[in-house]
Amino acid sequence: MWTAIPVIVLVIIAVPSYRLLYFMDRVEDPEVTVKVIGNQWYWTYEFPDDDISFDSLPLSDDEIDVAAGQHRLLEVDTPLVLPTDTDIRILHTATDVIHAWTIPAFGVKLDNVPGRTNESWTRITVPGKYYGQCSELCGIDHSYMPIVVHAVSPEEFEAWRADQLAANTNTPDDANRLAALIQE
Fold this sequence. Notes:
By secondary structure, the protein is α+β, with helices and mostly antiparallel strands. It has helices at residues 4-24, 154-166, 172-183; strands at 32-39, 42-47, 52-56, 80-83, 87-94, 99-103, 108-112, 118-123, 128-134, 146-152. The chain has a single domain (30-183), classed as Cupredoxins -  blue copper proteins (Immunoglobulin-like, Sandwich), CATH 2.60.40.420.
């Protein structure tokens, strides 16, 4: 009895808990979907519903503008822009090794695994600039994989989206800059 009763209680608790955990990982009918791709040692962002894709490369020490409030090892050339008060589905994957896209303020930390797509979601309620880092030991420049998210109003996001659709955001300059960063 001392064993059977606790096992029955745990099973009764476990069944609805697993159901709840499953539904916590997914958002029904997301308004925005962003795919986060980890690379050595930068992030690529794609909006699968649109034709938007860009790399987010870390800024080197000589590119940081301290007077403008930028922080060493935390700034990128192209931050991710996301809308506030919107259900956002985040798809996580990687091209080379395991990375972990982590934004503590959003409560999001999920592994980006090559050949696998993990899913999380968030809803940002306060506009602002949010920082994160890769939190998986992914190689020699692991500590140089900052994440910057600009959370803006839905109207500002739609304007940003329209600008991105109008312009090709991946340029040969990005590839040249990436090659220079890797050689450093």
